[in-house]
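User: Hello, can you help with two protein structures?

Assistant: Certainly.
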Amino acid sequence: MEHDLSPSTLSELRRPRPYPAVSVLTPTHRREPDNAQDPVRLRNVVAEAKKQLESDPAVSRERRSDVVHQLDQALAEVDLAHAEDGLVIFAAPGEHQVWSLGRTVPERVVLSDTFLTRNLVSAHAAERPFWVLSVSADRVALWSGGADRVTLERTGGFPVTRTPVDFDAERQERIGDMPSTFRDEDTRHFLREADAAMGMVLREQPRPLYVTGEPAALSLLDEVGGVTKEAVRIPHGGLAHGTPDAVWQAVGPTVAAEARLGTQAVARELESARGRKTFAAGVDEVWQSAREGRVRLLAVEENYRVTVRDALGDHLLPAVTGDLDAREDIVDEIVEQCLETGADVRFVPDGTLADARGIAGVLRY
């Protein structure tokens, strides 16, 4: 199942496809007893997708057979034992994908000529993705981090490796093994190349960056690096050859501390916007501002959800799940719209925006 949504992956998902491009969404659960319902709900929603394919006169028999086969293959790939909070299946002629999301989704089937990506975009933003660069003298590993995990990233030439340097016994005795390793010109060149590779990754996928390594490695990176100079330093060696769990244990507390600081900064920006009359609060007001491209900073509580209906295109009114014109993922719509117009989207702990009813924005004008 897929987890990591890069800009290139999102662009590919949004590419028009031969009709029908089927998007199947269903909420899932991480723990008992709630997860007992997940297999039944998943089978039912896939069955509903097949039913819609069968009844759609615009779908030829050949294409229907192809997409049904893709749905069956996708269903076989789902691993509910490792489910998160939402599941999305994409199926079109000749292709399928399965996405596991750390954010809940409404149960839905959509047939179109593009896949429905707003829930992926919102879930990705909510995870507050970051990079971890783990540095040693012979290996530099890149990790992709999210809400509760890191995974080894194989992109941009990472992991970068070289043959370890062996110092002779006389040299070790004279100046010491580890300090000499990080004074060596080849090591300087190696870390300079790793820094350049990291710069290319950040240009493609900008995220907060954390760098781990023993103090001597971090000191040398300060001397020869460029983009890594702005990173948060974590003096912890051995992680370039480490496991995802070891890396997460090392960086998790720092990531959490940075998130708390980020939440405080968002609160200050919102308070300042109130004084400048560039503040929007509540789903209806924020939705209207987002459609006009006026939102510079969007703040959303992590578990804020609301179901609404559109009142003649002018306002959003409360609605009940299951209503014919209900929009159950309006928050994800707003998040995607704001990201499309260049806004900074920040998810904050529940209760942070109580006076704004769960969602607020700082406006450009």
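That covers the first. Now for the second protein you mentioned:
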Amino acid sequence: MTQDSSTTPTYHTLSNRLRVVHRYCRSEAEYCGLCVMVGSRNEHPDHFGLAHFVEHTIFKGTERRRSWHIINRMESVGGELNAFTSEEATTIYSSFPAGNLPRAVELIADLVSRSRFPTPEIDREREVVLDEVASYLDSPSEAIFDDFNELLFAGSGLGHNILGTEKTIHTFSSDTCRSFLDRYYTPGNMVFFYMGPTPPQRVIAVAERYMGHFNHPDPELSRTIPPEVEPFDTLRTLGTHQAHTIVGARIPGMYADKNRAYSLLTNIIGGPCMNSLLNVALRERRGYVYSVDAYTSLFTDCGEFTIYFGCDPEHVKPCRRIISDTLSRMADSPMKERTLAAAKKQYVGQTIVAAENREQMALSTGRALLFNGHVAPQEEIVERIMSLSAENLRMAAEAFAPERCSILTFC
């Protein structure tokens, strides 16, 4: 166990190989949970949607509690219990008033180790998830991202919807869910994270008490890098009032040296601020779009850069031309130093503000330990951003030069 200061993460490994990370903060609230290295990418085609379905139904009953007792356990003290699934990870966590750590840790441990997945509850939740699938498909601005990934990552575990399909969801049973839980929710395949005012020694003791009995053998995770596909330009006619378009390309994964450059480029091109290049060009100057956003999604062995915009059908072509011109400029010539300095200053400021969101910081801490084995300090993140040169960004931008981009439009 090591601890350098009150803001430096403390690391510890329990007797059963479960890794623990502790981050101190002065707060009247606490946050803790488990990050599990399993997501939709680990599913067999016959079980697409199972990781998400287990995340839903893990709250439906254990050997000790019924679903009502699970819901009420943290809410009765003003806390929350939540979970979410991504392509490569699942997180179960709680936020609660300080002083309730044992309550939260014991509950999460009970869910992970003793969930029964009772059939009546499974059947009821199945309808909830099917409604979620239908609702998602009714929202083209969301559904287009999954359709784009199905094309970009065709033939791989990344090329399907996290929610699954009506056909696969109907096949899930109590045994299916329990087998999935036992296979992947193992001590060496999870990390426990904590953020709050409780001292690390106390957090470690509580984690050991309630989670030290986890003993399932760790799975052998095998992932195949998705094959490269030829750039595509696909139009799907859905009869929607508004057109929805994604322009995107493959980029290297989270362990690549260029990943910080991709994040900065994404922020410059279509980040959350109104002064992003595409928001200014497409919305502020021309009024073509209601929204335009750029995203970087980094997986363990690959990633993607995407731009989404929604507009009237007659504006799709001019929007595409402006986006193509913007990406060409980024890839062809280095950014001016003054412009780069301003972009880095803005991005650093955003990371500092984001670090004040303690719940998201706690979740990021767990994910960092799960995938990177450590949590990078804020100073290191800032240093990496500030060290980026104009040539670094230009070289990174070559990955999504227009000739390498694929395009999907719903209209």
